[in-house]
Amino acid sequence: MDRSAGGSNIAYDYSQRVMGEFYGVNQSPTVIVFAGIHGNEKAGVKAINMVLEKIKDGHMRFEGNLYFILGNINALNKHVRFEKVDLNRIWRNENLQDFKNKSVDLSAESREQFDIFEIIQKILSHGKGPFYFLDLHTTSASSVPFITISDSLNNRKFSSNFPIPVVLGIEEYLNGPLLTFINEFGHVALGFEGGAHDDPVSVINCEAFIWKALVHSKCLKRDQIKNFEHYQLVLTESCCKYQFFGINYRYQLEPDESFVMEEGFENFEPIRKGQLLARSNGKVIRAHRSGRIFMPLYQELGEEGYFILHKISKFWLKASIVLRKLKINHFLRLIPGVRKEKGNNYTLIVDPKIARFMAKEIFHLFGYRQQIYKDDKLHFIKRDRKVTGFE
Ligand SMILES: [Zn+2]
């Protein structure tokens, strides 16, 4: 059913893709905020509208440039996560090449992706860095707000401005999220999950995140924002603290699997080994290890049933910063069975036997994440990199 026109629901128009754009006196940094990449996640869109109202009333003077961009407009109008494919799982170079060749018939989401891609290209080619990409989401389970990032040092540094949990390395488990694609060009890219989809608090959290991000990126001075202290408190009081989590396990759903999560799990809730988590095709699923439950699936559409997280130690975080700053990662290439990809400084090709022998953790420590399995070899891709434009 197409409910995009009429009715009491707000219909989003394609002319509203760029919800707002502001140019500052220094034109630097450039902050780009996305919302509604998933059509059933409207909290971010509402938060942007609240921010836009306040910008209009406050006559704010910007230092840098700011853009607000709507994600999956078609899915937003239909109140679904996506129509054909998840818009946050198709950001791969080969898909974008297809646009250039114009050889394919574009599906609903591809058309949205093409639009967004063109806008990002324009912003990157005209704007001055540094660039901060922020993507607002919500979750089907109830949740404290949290951040997801690829594990690069510039992402970690910017995340440290927010007193909430940070989940590292989700890109090893998800294929083609927008922010991983952006990260490949060296820019800061943070996913912000504001809370549960329909919880009004999620809108408040998203709004507080936007104001804080504008101040910490130096796009806007804090004295330009009325009651900035209030936004500081929103995230501090909402939960917990700034701490890092890594992903140990993902429960991937089969195409026709009937998966039902046990009721009542919250994001980051501790679980014990053997605990009943879900039912799949009528069979019980128990936790194979202890940890924290993450993104338990309480909606129809989704590719993951749940994840299991562990808390990352301060020692590991510090050690990884030291190792990366020493730039001794080329020593990894001296290990038999590990070589650099020709013409690509960011990829190590690893014999799977070696990878089994050397813990994946060592590559993670140096900032490499296992991304793809190609020609019987593992490709580890470095997350820290020099800033470049799109080709
Ligand atoms: Zn989402």
In terms of structural class, how would the helical and strand content be classed?
Answer: alpha/beta
Could you tell me the mean pLDDT?
87
Beta-strand share of residues: 25-35%
Main CATH class of the largest domain: Alpha Beta
The number of distinct structural domains comes to 3
Widest sheet: strand order? 1-3-2-4-7-5-6-8-14-13-10
CATH topology of the largest domain: Aminopeptidase
User: So, the CATH homologous superfamily of the largest domain?
Assistant: Zn peptidases
SSE map:
Blueprint: E1 18-22, E2 30-35, H1 43-58, E3 65-70, H2 73-78, H3 93-101, H4 108-126, E4 131-139, E5 146-149, H5 153-159, E6 165-168, H6 178-183, E7 188-196, H7 200-216, H8 228-238, E8 243-252, E9 259-261, E10 270-271, E11 276-280, E12 283-286, E13 291-294, E14 304-311, H9 314-325, E15 338-340, E16 347-350, H10 352-357, H11 360-365, E17 368-374, E18 377-382
Bound molecules: zinc ion.
Zinc ion is lined by residues 38, 41, 137.
